Every structure is written in structure tokens, then in C-alpha cells.
């Protein structure tokens, strides 16, 4: 395996054609409103930045508080923007079982057109009863929200 060491990174300045609210997408970190990104780059290590016309103020996730195994769970997510109407965003939604394990078929990237989107997950009849967690992360900014869902036995 190849390892990247601290000495492999070189300081870099990225000058943007137009400034905006900059987010480090890989780190899920808001960097501020600017037209210049000061960073450190290394060969083989990707950097990805989003430049938005507003700061993502939050993301909210809504779903039923209780559901039975075998039913469909509809998850709605909304992105809020500071001082503007939100544009289109991608929100990563995951459903984790009572032990905190994310179940792959219950993870999706949701297009939040105009800041709003939804996805449905069909729970199996043998879904483990207990408190499950629905999490939503706005991909560009890393802003998160979560909800708990009580899953009961199939009806």
C-alpha cells in the first residue's frame, strides 16, 4: 500500500473566477464566503470544493415516528439556505438499524430540487424491532440532521 505523509502536501492557493460560499465537500466543512481557497494538495489525494451562492443553513429530515416491519418508510428532506431560496441539492439519506449499522439498500442520494426531496425505503417483514435512525447529510456542505424511527413487528 502507498501512504501519503505530511511532507507530501504542498501549500496551494486556488483563485475562483467568482466568489461564493465555499465548502470542502470531502471534509464536510464550510470554509466561508470567499474568492480564494488556501489549501494543501498532494499527488493522488483528491480535493473537492463546492461554491454556492448562499450558505447552507440546515437540512431537515422528516418521517413517521413509528412503523411496522414490512411497511414503506417515506423520508422527506429539505435544505434551508441563508438569505436565499435554495437551489437544487443532493442529500445523502441513510437508515441504520438499532445497532447503528447502515443497511446498504437503505441508503440513497436524493435530489432535493429547489431544496426539497424524498425517498421511500421498503422495510422487510423480518426487520429487527427497535429504534432505527434516519440520517440526512447535504452533500456539498456536510450539514446533517437525524430522526429516530421505532420499528415494530410486522402486522
> Uncertain regions: pLDDT < 50 for 5+ in a row?
none
Helix content bin: under 10%
SS summary, helix count: 0
How many strand elements? Answer: 11
Termini separation comes to 50 Å
Describe the structure.
With 155 residues, the protein is an all-beta fold. The chain contains no helices and eleven strands. The strands form three sheets. A five-stranded mixed sheet has the order 5-11-10-7-8, with no helix packed on it. The chain has a three-stranded antiparallel sheet with strand order 2-1-3, with no helix packed on it. Strand 1 (10-24) and strand 2 (29-41) form a beta hairpin. It starts with 9 loop residues before the first strand and ends with a strand.
Give me a quick take on this structure.
Helices cover 0% and strands 62% of the residues. With 155 residues, the chain is mainly β.
Helix-strand blueprint:
Blueprint: E1 10-24, E2 29-41, E3 49-52, E4 56-62, E5 66-68, E6 72-81, E7 89-96, E8 102-112, E9 116-122, E10 130-138, E11 144-152
Parallel strand pairs: 5-11
Antiparallel strand pairs: 1-2, 1-3, 4-6, 6-9, 7-8, 7-10, 10-11
Give a quick set of tags describing it.
62% strand; three-stranded antiparallel beta sheet; 155 residues; mainly beta
Amino acid at each position: 500500500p502507498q501512504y501519503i505523509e505530511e511532507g507530501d502536501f504542498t501549500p496551494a492557493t486556488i483563485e475562483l473566477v467568482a466568489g461564493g460560499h465555499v465548502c470542502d465537500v470531502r471534509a464536510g466543512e464550510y470554509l466561508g464566503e470567499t474568492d480564494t481557497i488556501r489549501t494543501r494538495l498532494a499527488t493522488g489525494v483528491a480535493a473537492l470544493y463546492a461554491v454556492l451562492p448562499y450558505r447552507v443553513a440546515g437540512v431537515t429530515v422528516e418521517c413517521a415516528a413509528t412503523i411496522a416491519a414490512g411497511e414503506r418508510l417515506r423520508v422527506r428532506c429539505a435544505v434551508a439556505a441563508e438569505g436565499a431560496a435554495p437551489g437544487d441539492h443532493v442529500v445523502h439519506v441513510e437508515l441504520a438499524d438499532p445497532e447503528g449499522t447502515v443497511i446498504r439498500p437503505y441508503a440513497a442520494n436524493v435530489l432535493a430540487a429547489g431544496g426539497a426531496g424524498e425517498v421511500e425505503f421498503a422495510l422487510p417483514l423480518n426487520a429487527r424491532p427497535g429504534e432505527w435512525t434516519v440520517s440526512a447529510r447535504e452533500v456539498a456542505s456536510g450539514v446533517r440532521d437525524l430522526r429516530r424511527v421505532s420499528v415494530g413487528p410486522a402486522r
